[in-house]
């Protein structure tokens, strides 16, 4: 029993020596969860190991988080580049759409339409006045006002005229 008491005293004095030599900072201190475990070296070592594991897993998580942040930045840059490209293409598309509506139809295109569909347009008319004829076995004329009728109606009407000429040729 005397030996045990002296061992405990030595352990406490050793603990005092260690605590006196270590600087008092948060990094060097291990918070014990249970005050009863204060004098038990086994529990103190377990707590130290848990702290080391926590720090290493924290470093690993921080590394992954940093790589995710870098990846996020790269994806944001790609997204902004793609959005800029979409905006540029949309502007170009709008410019070409408005430009084509105001221009009169090229005579070469009209000749091509005439050869394929037997549809002839009057060229000297204003753009809002669509006139012409479909020549097959018979002659059918058309006169349409583009401001009063929809584009779809005009297209359907012209295709109907072309179809009727094809039906007459079959007979």
From TrEMBL:
<keyword id="KW-0175">Coiled coil</keyword>
<protein>
    <recommendedName>
        <fullName>Kinetochore protein Spc24</fullName>
    </recommendedName>
</protein>
<feature type="coiled-coil region">
    <location>
        <begin position="65"/>
        <end position="92"/>
    </location>
</feature>
């Amino acid at each position: 029993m005397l030996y045990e008491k002296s061992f405990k005293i030595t352990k406490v004095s050793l603990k005092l020596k260690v605590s006196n030599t270590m600087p008092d900072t948060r990094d060097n201190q291990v918070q014990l969860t249970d005050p009863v475990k204060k004098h038990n070296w086994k529990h103190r070592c377990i707590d130290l190991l848990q702290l080391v594991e926590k720090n290493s897993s924290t470093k690993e998580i921080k590394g992954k988080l940093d790589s995710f942040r870098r990846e996020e930045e790269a994806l944001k840059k790609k997204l902004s580049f793609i959005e800029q490209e979409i905006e540029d293409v949309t502007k170009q598309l709008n410019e070409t759409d408005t430009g084509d509506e105001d221009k009169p139809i090229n005579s070469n295109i009209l000749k091509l339409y005439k050869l394929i569909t037997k549809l002839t347009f009057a060229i000297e008319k204003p753009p809002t006045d669509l006139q012409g004829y479909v020549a097959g076995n018979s002659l059918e004329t058309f006169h349409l006002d583009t401001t009063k009728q929809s584009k779809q109606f005009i297209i359907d009407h012209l295709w109907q005229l072309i179809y009727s000429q094809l039906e007459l040729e079959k007979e």
